[in-house]
Structures are given as C-alpha cells and as structure tokens.
Amino acid sequence: MYYTRDTIAAISTAMGGALNIIRISGMQAIEIVNNITKKDITEQKSHTTKINYILDRSREEIDEVMITVFHAPKSFTTENVVEITTHGSPYIAQKILTLLVESGARIAEKGEFTLRAFWNGRFDLTQAEAIADLISAQNASMHRIAWQQMKGGLSQKMKALRQDLIHFTALMELELDFAEEEVEFANRTQFIHILKNTISFIEGLLHSFRYGNALKKGVPVVIIGKPNAGKSTLLNALLEEEKAIVSPIPGTTRDVIEDTLTIEEITFRFMDTAGLRTTQDIVEQLGVKRTLEKIQEAEIIIYVCSANPRGSEYEEDIYQAYQNIQVYQKDKKNAQWIILANKADLYPRNEVQSFSNVPVLFVSAKEKQGISALKVLLLNIVRQFLPDFQTDLILTNQRHFDLLFKTQIHLKNALELFHQSVSTELISIDIKHALHYLGQITGDISTEDILADIFTNFCIGK
Amino acid sequence: MYYTRDTIAAISTAMGGALNIIRISGMQAIEIVNNITKKDITEQKSHTTKINYILDRSREEIDEVMITVFHAPKSFTTENVVEITTHGSPYIAQKILTLLVESGARIAEKGEFTLRAFWNGRFDLTQAEAIADLISAQNASMHRIAWQQMKGGLSQKMKALRQDLIHFTALMELELDFAEEEVEFANRTQFIHILKNTISFIEGLLHSFRYGNALKKGVPVVIIGKPNAGKSTLLNALLEEEKAIVSPIPGTTRDVIEDTLTIEEITFRFMDTAGLRTTQDIVEQLGVKRTLEKIQEAEIIIYVCSANPRGSEYEEDIYQAYQNIQVYQKDKKNAQWIILANKADLYPRNEVQSFSNVPVLFVSAKEKQGISALKVLLLNIVRQFLPDFQTDLILTNQRHFDLLFKTQIHLKNALELFHQSVSTELISIDIKHALHYLGQITGDISTEDILADIFTNFCIGK
Questions:
Q1: Has domain B131-212+394-443 been given CATH number 1.20.120.430?
Q2: Average pLDDT over residues B437-446
C-alpha cells in the first residue's frame, strides 16, 4: 500500500486562506520541483527561503512563490523536502500539484508525511498519533496531553514497561534452557513483584482513559429535570455568555457538536433532555429511555428543579429532586450529581448547601444569576476527578486503550499462573503476548493494516 | 484608520489543514516574535527557516514550529516579516496570535499586509487588486488576466496614458502663461490626434469589461425552452460529466454558485429557467418576467426544443423554436443563440445546420449524446467574442471600469471643446479631471476611503 522510495506531494493547508503550502518529500523532491521553477533550486541551501516563479508546461509563469528547501536528513520526514508557499488560490494550488505529478511526484496519502517520519525513525507511533491529536485539540487540557505524548511521554513509559518484560522473558528463557538442571535463575518473588507493579501501573492508565476520553470529546454533562424547570434557558445562559470567547477561534466545534462549551481549559459537552415526569410514570414515558441512556453516558448530571421551597404541581422543589435523584443513582453511581435550584430570583433564598453529597446551587437561568458559580462548580468537579494532566500520563486514544487492555489480560493471566506455580514455559507464552501488544502501541511491532488504520485518520498534507 | 508604524499579525491560512502560517510584519516583528520563542531569533539570518518552540506566558511549550525571518526591505511588505509555520490546530494558531498581541503586535485588518506593500511602493493599486483576483481566480483565463495585471500590465498602460495627458496639460499651461502673446506652443491638430487615440484606447478597454466581467463571474448561459424540453436533464448532463474534473479542487465554486462549469479555461454560469409556453400566453405567465430578466443577463442563450421534425402538442420542433427566438431577439440582440434539438435519439436525424445565424445542434440530453459537441460550440462562441486574453488588456474590475468611464467623459468633453475652439483654460479643466480619475486607478491619487473600499475585500492575513 505505501511506497517509500518515491516522492510525494500534497497541499498542506486548507483552501480559503491568503497563503497555501504545497509540500513535497522524497529523494527526488528537489529535482522534481526544479522542473517547474523559473530559477534553479538545486543549489539552494538547506533551510533557506527564496522567491521564485512556478512555470507551467508551456513555460508560462503561474505564480510568484516562496520556495523553502530542506535537505535530508534535517527535515520533517528526514527526506529531502521542499515547501512551496503560494498565493492562496485553489486554482493555483491544484495547478501546481498537477505540474508536480507530471514531473514525477505522487499525490500523498493522508498522513503520509508523518508516516514517513515514523518509518525513518524520527518518532514512534504514539508520537505520530499525538500530532493528529495536537491538530484537533480544542482546549488547553487536550493540547497539553497531546503535546506531552508528542514529546514522547507515553512512548518512554511504554518502552520502559516493554524493557522490563523483555528482561523478564530473557531470564525465563534462560531458566528453560537449563530446565533439566532445575536451576532457578530468576527469583520468582521478584518476578511476581515486577508483574504486580506493571499490572497496577497499566490499571491506572486504563482508568485514566475514562477521563482522557471525556476530555477529548468534552466532559459529558446531562441536564435533566421536570418540564418547564428551565433546562433550555440554563443551557442558553451557559452557552451565550461564552459565545464571545469561543468565536475568535474560526471553524471550531460550534458547527460540529452542538452545545459544547469550553470553560478555561476544559470542554464540556452539554446534553439537554426531554423533561421528566414524576418517578411513578417514568416507565410509561416515551423518550425516557433516551434520557436514561444519556444519564449512562454522563460524568456530571445537573438536576434542575425549583428554588420554590414548596413546589407546586408544576414545580418540583429541592427535596423532591433529591428523592428522584436517589432513584436514578441506583443505576448510575459514578456520576457527580448537582441540584440546581432554579428561579432563585422569585423565591426567598433557601440556605440548603447540599443533600448528602449532592451539592445544591441557587441560580436564575433567566436572569443569568449564579451561572458563574455553576461554571466554577463544574470546573472543580472535573479537576477533582481528573488526574493531574499537567504531569500524569493520560490515555486518550482508543487504540492504546484496547492494546493495553489486551496486555493486561495476559499479564494478569501470567500472574495467576505464577501463583499456581505453573511451568515457566507456559507463563512465558502470556508474557510474549503482552509484549506483542505493548510493541504495537509504540509501533515497534506494526503491520500495514495498523498503519493504514492510524494514518487514514490524518488530514491530507500532514 | 490604518497605522503604519506598528507591527501587525494574522493567521494567513484557512483553518482545517495540516499546517498554518502566522504572519507578522512591522518594525518590531522580530523582537515581538522573539518574546515568545524558546530559541533566540534576533540573530537568525534573513530568508532562513529554523525549527523553534513557541512558549506561553508561563514559559511552557505550546508548539514546535518553523520560523522564517525576512529582514526589511527584502520582504513582501518591505518591513521586517516573520512567518511562523505551526501544526494545523485552530487552538494553537489562536493561542499564538494572542501571545503575539500580548507581546505588542496588533491583529491585522483585511488585506493590510498587501496595503503596506502598496504604501511602501512595492506595487501600485491595480497590482494589489490583482493579488485578490489571483487568489479568487477559478479558471485559466481569469488566472491569466489577474497574473498579467499583477505583473503590471494594466499599470503600465494607465501610467503611459497619464504621462501623455500630463505632457499635454503642461503644454497647455505653457500656452496659458503666454496667452497675451498669442503664442501656440502646442499643435492643436496634434492635441486632437493624441486625444482621439486615448479615447479610442479607453473605449476598447471599457468594451473589454463586458467580457472581463463575464469571465470573472462565469459566462452567463441561459437555458430556455418549453416545459419538458429536457432543460434540466441537459444541465445535469453538462455538469455531471465534469464533476470528476471539478472535484479535485476542494472548496471551489460548486458550493457557492450553483450550476457553474469550467470547460477548459472558461467558466460558464448556467441558468435554468421555468419552461416557456407558446408566445401568445407569455405575458400571462408568472415567472416569465424572471426568465426574461435572465435572458437580459445572458451572453449565450440555449433554446432547447425537440429533434422531432413535426413537434406534437407537447413538443416544440426546430422551426417553431426559431420562430420564438425571433420574438425574443427583439429584446436581446447581443446574445448568441443556440438551438438545441433534443431527444435526437428518438427521431430520424434532421440535417438542418442552422437557421439564419442561429446554429442548430442535435443532442440527447438523456443519453448524453452530443454534449461534447455542445461544449466545443460554447467554447468556440466565447473564444470568438472574447478579446485575446493571452495578450490583450481586459478590464475585470468594476472600480477600474467606473474610473475609466469618468475619465472618458472628460476626455470626450475636452475633444468636443477643442472642436469648438474653446479657450485652452476651459479645456484644461476637463483634462485635469481625467488625470485625477486615471490617477485613482493606479493609486497615484488615493484616499483612505478608496483604500478601505479596496482592502476590505481581501482576506485576513493577506
């Protein structure tokens, strides 16, 4: 599927801006570009930028461009790389790409520049994947996690784990070679100790995925409550305030995922639900199943009720809300609940601070009172349940999670076998499986299929 | 409105690609960027690119970037310019822009980099405008016209015209100074000769605007005919075939203007119309007014009828079609008409080649027969009425047209006054007006308002 000896070209910028960059990488990069430039670039020094003109096949000028040359191995791909910065015209970009293909380049597959950098040893697979994460990061926390992964945070840990296990296997193999002599080179207690530590470390990583994933896609917050409790007004109040802050970033989430909001470094994914009736008729309600499904997804559940201390037929008060929450909590204990006593502008302030562990917040969604306090509470909750993403390793990638999960099964199996004093030969099979999966994370072990899976998620020109 | 002594910054690429470029220009450009880079760039040589890291205010790394430095005056704006090429993340781009502003840069207005280049004498106003045209050019002909204008084709002509008129005025002024002595320094016949030549040249340019504008927006082609004649099938047949050719250029016209099609170097703008009834009841028809309006816009009108030599009640044949066309032609003589005898697969081929000057083409829109021939015919028609855009000057800009139109009025007036032997003093007023308008085209005379008008049509970062 991928060839490494040819020269690839792609437009590396999105169309519609003032400038475009066309990137060319491969052994023939400089010669191929030189075929279509007015001024010779074969003598142009590495890491320099010069004005030039692109010529079409009839040697007519197409565009005035800046040409930057990078000589192997000091380039992104470690190959010869040329970057052509053009006026931001889709017509010109496409035309130049066509001319490059006519001169011997091939149009790059998605992520193929990064793939080549990986192949040529510039970084491992987790770092390559981090580049895609870095590009799609929409808030400070995701950016931080992607950046750490790109700088090799995860790689180093994976490599260390793998190193330990390889050493471990080597000792076991040695034992097997001398099996007839019944020599025990490795200390079984020590083996078990290393294994337990590894399992516990991976357990932590697997656990972090829940939060990593929430951070990546936005922490899921479900808003529930009786009809007319003010759920949508609350959502609008939350979103409206931040719109001015979100808008300077062009083309970000708002068009794609409805109702996400970034508060400081954390993105929240708010899900509004159909109003709930009293607990008695819940099962009869259509749409309740969907609300319950959303509750299952949620990390935080905001239960909107009324600040009216004696809720009328139409208004559920704080006490009733808490009763209801207890019913739902049977299903979903992990989530953090918040009781939002809405319409606080209408009723004398009730001083209840919390019911058991459920915090109570008085707001007026309509008058936008208490919204800032809600945001602070949301942030505090997330910061509480999150690992310290400034320093801790956090899994955000489904592929890594799946491979670590498989690794863990084999390690646990190995530990079990150790306890049962099963023969080293059998145990070593599990350790080898674990090593295999670990190696796939960093790409020490890779197949075309794995690579294709990963790099087709990249954008063109990366 | 515009300040020239501060340092401006903007994201010069559209969001969504693999790479972004942030451009900074101004006296402090290097120092401002240096505040946020890990490695010092103040010693970095002009026209070199180096790997670097952007640091946030807490000196944490934000991104690994390539930094290119251009020292004044050898840069696009002739000021110090720095380009930061980042990973294509909107979050990172926005973050870096914020850091630059915190370091003392100002976010650039639309087109402000080009405006600075204009101010600093790198090119004149028509060339600056050509950059915007170059970016938006969607086909080879528009690209060619914009390129020639950018290279100074129009400027040179405008300057030559202006030079002639200035020389002219100078001689007239001299005459005025010596008026009492009744000396005639300039030869009136020569004056009239120059004036006539200038007027005739401008006439040609004004005339070219009709085609320039058609090329820029797409040559307007209206498809008319009775209901069920196959107009929409024809449009689909025309568009469908080319979709594969259009699609490699991402984000171009298709989403913006429905039903445009580029055949070789020419873009056509096809307009489908409601089916026409017989001429008798036209006035009664709703929607006919709109069809007639579209006919007014058209350069080419395709009249779709049936290849059936004796059209039934539902089918209008070639002869009837020609009768109808004659009615419409009273209103719209300039357009080129084509009779398209559709459903040619169903009927024995009629050998009519044309009616008077209206060519007749046999096609089957449904079976996609004759579509290529239609395209060749369309191209030939356009090439016939077009000036040679490989070499001739063509006006494409409404501002230039308006100013030349005003220039022309005053020149014609001056010529008239010459013929009437009016005093040189009065004639010179008209010539001065003409000079004023000519000067505005190239920007030798400009006001903030004119500049604001022009540059707000640019994109950000250009």
A1: yes
A2: 90
| Chain B residues touching A143 at Cβ < 8 A | 62, 89, 91-92, 95
Q: 94-123 in B: which are within 8 Å (CB) of A?
A: 94-95, 113
Query: Are B92 and A252 an interchain contact pair (Cβ–Cβ within 8 Å)?
Result: no
Say whether residue A134 is in contact with chain B using an 8 A CB cutoff: yes
Task: Please give the residue that has the higher pLDDT: either A300 or B392.
Answer: A300
Which of A74, A71, A83 lies closest to A43 in space, CA to CA?
A71
Q: What is the pLDDT of residues B160-215, one digit of tens each?
A: 999 888 888 887 777 777 766 666 656 778 788 889 999 999 998 998 888 888 88
Q: Which fold has domain B8-123?
A: Gyrase A; domain 2 (3.30.1360)
Sheet architecture: strand order including A354-355: A260-263, A266-272, A219-225, A300-306, A336-342, A358-362, A354-355
In whole angstroms, what is the distance from residue B145 CA to residue A31 CA? 30
> So what's the pLDDT on residue B181?
66
Question: Would you call A21 and B21 a contact, using CB atoms and an 8 Å cutoff?
Answer: yes
pLDDT in tens, A273-290: 766 654 454 444 545 666
Q: What is the pLDDT of residues B278-310, one digit of tens each?
A: 545 444 454 566 677 777 778 898 988 888 887
Cβ of B17 and A49 within 8 Å?
no
B217 touches chain A (CB under 8 A): no
The residue among B113, B53, B129, B112 whose CA lies nearest residue B81 is B113
- pLDDT given for residue B67 in this prediction: 98
CB–CB contact B90 A14 (8 Å) = no
Mean of all residue pLDDT scores within chain A: 84
**Model pLDDT, residue B112:** 94
Peptide bond into B227 cis (omega under 30): no
Share of chain B above pLDDT 70, in %: 87
**In this model, does residue A407 exceed pLDDT 90?**
yes
Q: Are strands B336-342 and B8-11 parallel, antiparallel or unpaired?
A: unpaired
For tokens 């917050």, name the residue: A221
- The answer to whether residue A15 neighbours chain B at the CB level (below 8 Å) is yes
- Domains in chain B: boundaries: 8-123, 131-212+394-443, 218-365
Could you tell me which residue, B248 or A182, shows the higher pLDDT? Answer: A182
Contact A300, A221 (CB under 8 A): yes
Domain B218-365 in the same topology as domain B131-212+394-443: no
Is B58 near chain A, with CB under 8 Å? no
Q: What is the dihedral of CA B151, B153, B155, B157, to 10 degrees?
A: 160
Q: CB B14 to CB A249 under 8 A?
A: no
pLDDT at A242: 44
Neighbours of B228 (CB within 10 A): 15
Q: How confident is the model at residue B11 (pLDDT cuts 50, 70, 90)?
A: very high
Residue B434 amino acid letter? A
3-state SS record for A250-307:
CCCHHHCCCCEEEECCEEEEEEECCCCCCHHHHHHCCCHHHHHHHHHHCCEEEEEEEC
Q: At B413, list the tokens.
A: 């007036």
Starting at the edge strand found earlier in the chain, the sheet holding A8-11 runs A106-107, A8-11, A19-25, A81-87, A61-70, A48-55, B48-55, B61-70, B81-87, B19-25, B8-11, B106-107
Q: Does B14 touch chain A (CB under 8 A)?
A: yes
Q: Which of B39, B50, B86, B89 to mutate to test the interface with A (most CBs of A within 10 A)?
A: B89
Whether the predicted pLDDT of B252 surpasses 60:
no
Distance CA(B204)–CA(B198), nearest Å, equals: 10
Place of tokens 């020239």: B4
CATH architecture of B218-365: 3-Layer(aba) Sandwich (3.40)
